[in-house]
Design goal:
Number of strands of chain B: 8
Structural class of chain A: alpha+beta
Number of helices of chain B: 12
Distance between the termini of chain A: 30 Å
CATH class of the domain at 232-384 in chain A: Mainly Alpha
CATH superfamily of the largest domain in chain B: Butyryl-CoA Dehydrogenase, subunit A, domain 3
CATH topology of the domain at 232-384 in chain A: Butyryl-CoA Dehydrogenase, subunit A, domain 3
Largest sheet of chain B: 4 strands, mixed
Structural class of chain B: alpha+beta
Order of helices and strands of chain A: HHHHHHEEEEEEEEHEEHHHH
Largest sheet of chain A: 4 strands, mixed
Oligomer: heterodimer
Strand order of the largest sheet of chain A: 1-4-5-8
Number of strands of chain A: 10
Strand content of chain A: 15-25%
Helix content of chain B: 40-55%
Helix content of chain A: 40-55%
CATH topology of the largest domain in chain B: Butyryl-CoA Dehydrogenase, subunit A, domain 3
CATH class of the largest domain in chain B: Mainly Alpha
Strand order of the largest sheet of chain B: 1-4-5-8
Radius of gyration of chain B: 23 Å
CATH superfamily of the domain at 232-384 in chain A: Butyryl-CoA Dehydrogenase, subunit A, domain 3
Shape of chain B: globular
Shape of chain A: globular
Largest interface: A-B, 50 and 47 residues
Strand content of chain B: 5-15%
CATH architecture of the largest domain in chain B: Up-down Bundle
Chain lengths: 387, 403
């Protein structure tokens, strides 16, 4: 087996610098505070969103025949790293998570709305989560069959950009118990449907989210796009894609947080000395760099894996990436605030914004405990793996 | 495998396969038994006839111990494509490595001689390394010069056509079974500018070698005493007083070597498999703790995968900054130590047996391995020294005003 290519080539480096320049000009970190503080904020900048679509950032991993560029997740990861650096608020991750349900790549027909999703004019998000904890197998929401279609009832939680979505892809149970792998269905539902209520909230990092209440929402038979094993496999794919891209976004954030902190260590003077000369701080900063290097490699390996076809290997690589970035981001953000001293606790210093993101991001795509046990499950002999 | 090769490569493959079929002794095919290791070479090894010696002689004679080296220096001048074919053909018959992978002469000294040695030194010293004829060890640390290596005191005074060496080296791995030692010696008083790099035959009069018993009960490390040892002046590598930069670049080679070994990156597959089977047994025996055990195992694998991806990426990026080998050394040695800790927890007192009729060989081997692993973060530059290097070269943090 040959090793995957994890270094960036010239094209990829060019993509990175183009994305960085674009975001520096159009979505600096000050926009995060503005979007956070303006009354009735949508939690995104529509002008920037439109430009992102024009740059084809949505379709990077979608096949050329379906209107994407077919470049792959490895390249899309570079975009997410840059979004993470600047802590950009946008629905890109939410839409990227839903795209495998729409682009015909995983056992469902190509969705009629795919072109307008890739153009940024229609927003479609996956509404799946039902707990404050990451339990992807948990679906208690029900779908009851009727003569003309289905009736959905239940409550989805912490769905990113649900308030802006035109349509939601909702997981619901056609049969079985809440944690069964079989008996699931995926339904495309208009967000204005009768009985569907969006309850908005924001977490500490200011990304708009919402709980979605479904009280006897009637949908037609054609709303069901996947069921049973196909639905379960498709959800796994959506989660792996979202987790790996989120890990890339976190990598960008933690890299920027590390740079901020190292710059501070090189400039701040106390006891008549630059504090970066103190060995106690140097060793901790060196640990932060090591964590960042490991995270970089693990994220790239996961993205490469997503572009390949080894499903078992992808699951492990994605979980390795999430565990590694969770730990690196947590370390760098916490140490970053500590090393900034009192200034690190103020809203004025950017380091605190990264701390907030590190806390929500670690919990959102699966916390480290979840992914460590998932790696173990894949690597232990079948008969001994814990449930 | 042979589908798309050009005729020239096909011919090389066939020739290689035939030679290996005729020459690789049957006993040198198939994996090493537990506790067995490939030979380190050297004069003592060549004193006793054995299949392993015959295999090393044949491979060395063909230049295939270091096939990428130039032919006149003991290699076979093979290009990458032929190297790949040779590796594949060796693997196909399950041939054992003729020489242990972590060879001090090949991995540490040879890069220095290629970069800094005179033509005469290269022709004198490299071919015996390539044939496994001469086993080398390292003479760097001293009782008063550990992490502060440049504080070394072993002195070499020029007396006509030779140096007279007096001093005391410590932590020289396998010095008791080695033939030659490369030493850092003091030829001047300037802390770093007075250090020279000297090659010394361990059979020279005035040298005594004493193994040091370690916590594990084993003695791979030695003290080496030098009392008026005469060393020909042409065995000094580079310029007198020019040893420090050479010493530092050799340390980077050492870190790279230890880094590749420490994390179980060589033979990592079988090491992970053995850990997996021990975890599986523990999960069956202690089902009530299964979540915690799976968590620990998953954490270990996550770190191992991330480290492997990192060494792959560093190699592809051709990164040469001094922080790179330090990062790999630090992470892989800590990972190995954590692996030994985890094995200890999984096996309990069975992994702490020492002696007595009821003590098992496996348990005692585990106990020694755990004790031995505690040295991983000390040898080859302590973890603290690696962190200093990473802070300076990786982050560019300023240095405190010290001596």
């Amino acid at each position: 087996m040959t090793a995957p290519i994890l270094a960036h080539d010239e094209d990829e480096q060019a993509l990175r610098s183009a994305a960085r320049s674009f975001l520096a000009a159009h979505s600096p970190i000050s926009d995060l505070r503005r979007l956070r503080d303006e009354p009735g904020s949508a939690g995104m900048c529509p002008v920037v969103w439109k430009k992102m679509a024009e740059l084809d950032w949505l379709g990077l991993a979608v096949d050329e025949h379906q209107g994407g560029s077919g470049a792959g997740y490895f390249q899309q990861g570079i975009i997410f790293e840059e979004l993470g650096r600047a802590l950009v608020l946008s629905p890109l991750l939410a839409v990227a998570e839903a795209l495998p349900c729409l682009d015909g790549s995983h056992g469902t027909p190509v969705a009629p709305q795919l072109a307008s999703v890739l153009a940024g004019t229609t927003i479609v998000c996956l509404a799946h989560r039902e707990s404050a904890h990451y339990i992807p197998e948990l679906v208690a929401t029900t779908a009851r069959a009727t003569d003309s279609g289905f009736v959905l009832s239940g409550r989805k939680q912490f769905v990113a950009y649900a308030g802006l979505a035109d349509e939601l892809i909702i997981s619901a149970r056609l049969s079985g118990q809440p944690r069964d792998r079989n008996g699931l269905g995926l339904f495309v539902v208009d967000s204005a449907a009768r009985g569907l209520e969006v309850e908005p909230l924001r977490l500490i990092d200011s990304t708009p989210r919402a709980h979605v209440r479904l009280d006897d929402v009637h949908v037609g038979a054609s709303a069901l796009i996947a069921q049973n094993v196909t639905a379960a496999d498709l959800l796994d794919r959506c989660h792996d894609v979202a987790t790996a891209l989120q890990a890339a976004e976190m990598l960008g954030s933690l890299s920027a947080a590390l740079e901020l902190t190292v710059t501070h260590l090189k400039n701040r003077v106390q006891f008549e000395a630059i504090i970066g000369t103190f060995q106690a701080l140097q060793h901790r900063a060196a640990r932060m760099l090591i964590a960042q290097e490991l995270a970089t490699s693990a994220v790239r390996a996961a993205l490469r894996s997503l572009d390949g076809s080894d499903l078992d290997g992808t699951a492990v690589d994605v979980s390795v990436a999430k565990v590694t970035v969770n730990e690196a981001f947590s370390l760098i953000a916490r140490e970053g605030v500590q090393m900034h001293g009192g200034m690190g606790m103020t809203d004025e210093a950017d380091i605190g914004l990264y701390l907030k993101r590190s806390q929500t991001a670690a919990a959102l795509g699966g916390d480290s405990g979840y992914h460590r046990r998932r790696i173990a499950r894949h690597k232990l002999p079948q008969d001994s793996a814990p449930a | 495998m042979t589908d798309h090769e050009d005729p020239e490569m096909d011919a090389f493959r066939q020739e290689t396969a035939e030679w290996l079929a005729d020459n690789c002794p049957e006993s040198m095919r198939g994996p090493l038994a537990p506790g067995e290791s490939a030979p380190g070479g050297g004069r003592r090894f060549f004193d006793e006839p054995s299949d392993a010696r015959r295999w090393l002689e044949l491979m060395g004679g063909r230049g295939w111990v270091v096939p990428e080296w130039p032919e006149q220096l003991g290699g076979a001048d093979l290009d990458r494509q032929r190297m790949k074919v040779l590796r594949e053909e060796l693997r196909r018959i399950g041939a054992r490595p003729p020489l242990a992978e972590l060879n001090t002469g090949i991995k540490m000294l040879a890069p220095i001689l290629f970069a800094h040695g005179s033509e005469k030194q290269q022709h004198q010293f490299l071919p015996p390394i390539a044939r496994g004829r001469v086993r080398w060890c390292q003479g760097y640390s001293e009782p008063e010069a550990g992490s502060d290596l440049a504080a070394l005191r072993t002195r070499a005074v020029l007396a006509g056509d030779h140096y007279l060496v007096n001093g005391h080296k410590i932590w020289s791995s396998y010095a008791h079974i080695s033939d030659w030692i490369f030493c850092l010696v003091r030829t001047g008083d300037d802390k770093r500018g007075g250090i020279s790099f000297l090659l010394i035959d361990l059979e020279s009069p005035g040298i005594t070698v004493e193994p040091i018993t370690l916590l594990s009960g084993r003695s791979d490390f030695c003290e080496v005493h030098f009392s008026d040892v005469a060393v020909p002046r042409d065995q000094l590598v580079g310029e007198p007083g020019g040893g420090w930069p050479i010493a530092k670049s050799l340390l980077a080679h050492e870190r790279a070597m230890l880094g590749s070994a420490g994390g179980g990156l060589s033979g990592g597959g079988s090491r992970s498999a053995s850990l997996a089977s021990i975890v599986a047994t523990a999960l069956r025996d202690r089902a009530d703790e299964s979540d915690g055990l799976a968590d620990r195992f998953g954490a270990h694998l996550a770190e191992l995968h991330a480290l492997k991806a990192t060494t792959t990426r560093f190699a592809q990026e051709r990164r040469t900054d001094p922080a790179v080998p330090s990062i790999v050394k630090l992470v892989s040695t800590e990972l190995n130590m954590k692996r030994e800790d985890l094995l200890g927890e999984l096996l309990g007192l069975d992994a702490m047996t020492w002696d007595g009729d009821a003590a098992t060989h496996d348990g005692t081997t585990r106990a020694r391995a755990w004790l031995r692993s505690r040295a991983n973060s000390i040898e080859g530059g302590t973890s603290e020294v690696q962190l200093n290097i990473i802070a300076k070269h990786g982050l560019g943090l300023p240095q405190a005003a010290t001596s």
